[in-house]
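Task: sequence design from structure.
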């Protein structure tokens, strides 16, 4: 990770910890206060746009929670309820097809 990325990351964490909105100007101010001179304004702009509207503390608390599976199931249930899902049949689970192995192709790694 470059110095610019690291400085922007730390500045964003400081702002989030203080409960302050993360903006490019505030990130740049913190970086200048820390006497880090080689950070171009594009980095602070990128970090501010990436973190806009996000709860950084919540993201840090859920780093290893595996929340992706719950998010995948949520929209399908919500979409069916919003569209009057009482008359529609329940969604069937997709059965994953077994991947072909190299043994079935008739050749091996060293043939």
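Answer:
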């Amino acid at each position: 990770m470059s110095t610019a990325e690291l400085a922007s990351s730390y500045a964003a964490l400081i702002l989030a910890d203080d409960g302050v909105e993360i903006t490019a100007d505030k990130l740049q101010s913190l970086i200048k206060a820390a006497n880090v001179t080689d950070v171009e304004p594009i980095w602070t702009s990128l970090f501010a746009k990436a973190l806009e509207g996000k709860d950084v503390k919540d993201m840090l608390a859920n780093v290893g929670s595996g929340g992706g599976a719950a998010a995948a199931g949520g929209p399908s249930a919500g979409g069916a309820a919003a569209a009057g899902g009482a008359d529609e049949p329940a969604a069937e689970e997709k059965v994953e097809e077994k991947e072909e192995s190299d043994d079935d192709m008739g050749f091996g790694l060293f043939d």
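The radius of gyration is 24 Å.
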